[in-house]
Please model this.
Amino acid sequence: MLYILLFVLCILLFIFGMTIIRFGLFNLSANKLKTWLIKLTSTPLKGMVTGTFITALLQSSSAVMVITIGLISARIMTFPQSIGIILGTNIGTTFKTELITFDIDAILVPLAISGALLILLKNKRARSIGMLLFGIASVFTAMKGFELVAEPLTTMGFINKFILSINDNLLLSILAGTIITAIIQSSTAMTGIAMGFLTAGLLQLDAGIAIVLGANIGTCITAIIASIGGGKESKLAAFAHVWLNVFGVLLFIPLIPLLTENAPFLASRKDVQLAHISVIFNVATSLLILPFATRFGEMILFLHDRRPKRPVS
Model:
């Protein structure tokens, strides 16, 4: 029971760290973000580049989707403009996945202390930098926790059976990644958990890949929640986010064995291999949809909008 509690605390610490990183970065750049989102979305390509950059800056695809849906609800942005941003959020979110593979254990304590001290200052910029540093320290501490708690957890019968079952069933792994991500509302946290079990040697790489694919679907729940009560176009943007990830996952399921087999060419460590494969998935999915962005938007309208058909361009 103690290890389950520690595991839950690690998840909460990870999400807390990602949240205050986002707050710190948002405070440093808030005045420009919405302007960029509104102005730099005249074409799907511009929207994708803008969405990628802002998602990487905020370290949260969910946050960018919530902002975008808010702008659509306020009729400052249209659904067609959001398509490029949606493609970009999937690419931008991989930056944080790569970030958590770095080994900075030696400087975690100084990082946390300096961050905490800066947060206490009155200067807004200093506080924001402090949030960024303290958040990074929290995220990496949680990652270390995942690694340390993973093996003791599997001594518990039901958890051991669960790990064994998802190792032997890719569809179950995808489902687990989807459901757990929808509950904790962080695909990066789910990826971090998978990395911890991979590093401990308890999770097979193909199951880890499947979990990450599922996490991409599960993270869409935030956009769906944000679109409630926001009008028809807000819901269309949320549906587009869901369909983009569902299409990507369906496309990549047959490729999991190939990715697993060639993963050693990407990196030596399994957690880094998983991070790189996550990048491949998200970049490939967005680039495949980009040439058909207009058609993709029309498909969303066809499936989810009963009003007379209108062009998406």
